[in-house]
Design a protein that fits this description.
- The protein has helices at residues 3-6, 25-33, 48-53, 58-68, 102-125, 166-182, 191-197, 213-216, 252-261, 277-280, 300-304, 326-333, 345-348, 360-370, 376-387, 391-420, and strands at 9-14, 39-43, 73-75, 84-88, 131-136, 153-158, 185-188, 204-206, 238-242, 266-270, 289-293, 309-312, 338-341, 355-357.
- The chain is an alpha/beta fold.
- It folds into two domains: 3-210 and 392-413, Rossmann fold, CATH 3.40.50; 213-387, Glycogen Phosphorylase B (Rossmann fold, 3-Layer(aba) Sandwich), CATH 3.40.50.
- The strands form two sheets. An eight-stranded mixed β-sheet has the order 3-4-2-1-5-6-7-8, with helices on both faces. A six-stranded parallel β-sheet has the order 11-10-9-12-13-14, sandwiched between helices.
- α9 crosses α14 and α12 packs across α15.
- The protein starts with a helix and ends with a helix.
Length: 421
């Protein structure tokens, strides 16, 4: 790999907008990549329906006049270096509800043109010459660029099994297969996703999720952090969870069993509540359960610091089978003892450093064991593992993958020329 290629710009087309209330794989990767390369972050477009539904959100209000008039909204983020510029395309038509027919395809081309024109404007406005085009989990409008755009490579990245989410699966399954086939190579975040994509795209590589080590590094040893107001009153040991309380991945009956079986401890759940099961299980009414709601990633360490054991209570289903959970590296970076359900090949790869439960009863039993698992060598080992799973490591891994793919391509082309001679 030449030095010049490692200096190429990155145009990152992603499903995860810069104004999301929680951190994402693509934004974390972009933040790290922008330390050395220019990154142009193309947000998934807002449909006219999205704009109406979310019209009161302050960050969207800033964009609305521009994107409703067919313009592109540029922005920078304070927490990301100068190399980072985000672009939000003009508003698109809401078409996901339509079946795959002539009407859908016609409107799809209209939306696709808006996104492609955004990329074209980014290239022109910022004098982008040599670049790699990376699409993160957004197969809907422009996952791969037409050849005349001049990308050195078009890469598709999958971070979840798209077939398991009904709304995006409707058109997403078909479009993602097309994207993977048309891409130069595909990146996936888990072992099982690679098994899924290899028959579609032989050039499929694993690039796992990572941790923002600067946020969690040395948290275990810090003494300057005060308890947040929501947990300031707690005198018992804390069983903690950090993450999205979603309706597909999280085992809420397990939360209930844990709280019932450990009345001498407090279960603290930090994250946005996006599932009615939180209330259906009565977690909001239990005296030893605290729900903090959504928190910015920068504020998470204040809660994580005071957790005595951390949980990954994932359901065992088709979706979680393909998950490499971001939070495992956050827990380990903080030196925390953790318990997980046995949901994927990738979580089992951490078996030496975390406790993996085989069923609900085993999970409940492991609480009292894990809460004491703080021998200095165990804490040090956890931190060491997390230190090799940073976003800096992933950026280096990205360039290594590009190098491997490019070298392989060069060899194949040379072999072909030799054969023709």
């Amino acid at each position: 790999m030449t030095k010049e290629v490692r200096q190429f710009d990155i145009i990152l087309n992603t499903l995860f907008r810069t104004d999301n209330s929680y951190s994402s794989v693509s934004l974390s990767f972009a933040k790290e990549m922008a330390k050395t390369n220019r990154v142009f972050y193309v947000n998934h477009p807002y449909s006219y329906k999205d704009i109406y539904d979310e019209r009161k959100k302050p960050l969207l209000k800033e964009k609305m006049p521009t994107i409703l008039m067919g313009g592109i909204h540029y922005e920078t983020l304070n927490e990301i270096p100068e190399n980072f510029i985000a672009a939000t395309p003009p508003a698109t038509l809401p078409i996901n509800f339509l079946p795959n027919n002539l009407i859908y395809n016609g409107l799809y081309q209209y939306n696709r043109k808006r996104v492609l024109n955004t990329v074209k404007r980014v290239i022109k406005d910022h004098n982008v010459k040599d670049f790699i085009y990376l699409t993160c989990y957004d197969p809907f409008f422009a996952p791969v660029l037409p050849k005349d755009f001049g990308a050195f490579l078009s890469i598709y990245q999958c971070i979840d099994d798209i077939s398991t989410e009904a709304y995006v699966a409707k058109h997403g399954v078909r479009l993602e297969k097309e994207a993977a086939k048309a891409s130069d190579l595909t990146l996936v975040t888990s072992t099982n996703l690679r098994k899924i994509f290899l028959p579609i795209q032989p050039e499929t590589y694993i690039m796992h999720n990572a941790v923002d080590i600067s946020i969690f590094q040395n948290l275990y040893f810090r003494t300057d952090i005060e308890r947040p107001a929501e947990i300031a009153h707690i005198k018992t040991p804390i069983i903690g969870f950090v993450g999205n309380l979603d309706p597909i991945r999280t085992d809420y009956p397990l939360f209930r069993k844990i709280a019932d079986a450990h009345p001498d401890k407090t279960l603290v759940l930090v994250g946005p509540i996006n599932s009615p099961e939180v209330y259906e299980q009565g977690l909001d009414k239990m005296p030893n359960v605290v729900l903090t709601g959504a928190k910015k990633i920068q504020d998470v360490p204040q809660y994580l610091k005071f957790m005595d054991v951390c949980l990954l209570p994932s359901l065992l289903n088709k979706m979680t089978k393909s998950v490499y959970p971001l939070k495992i590296n956050e827990y380990l970076a903080a030196g925390k003892s953790a318990i997980s359900t046995n949901f994927s090949d990738d979580i089992r790869s951490f078996g030496e450093h975390i406790h993996i439960a085989q069923d609900h009863a085993d999970f409940v039993r492991l609480i009292d064991i894990a809460i004491k698992d703080y021998a200095p060598e165990r804490v040090a080992a956890r931190m060491k593992v997390a230190s090799t799973n940073t976003w800096g490591d992933r950026v280096r891994e990205f360039w290594s993958i590009i190098e491997e793919h490019t070298n392989k391509k060069s060899v194949n082309q040379a072999d072909r020329k030799t054969f023709l001679v």
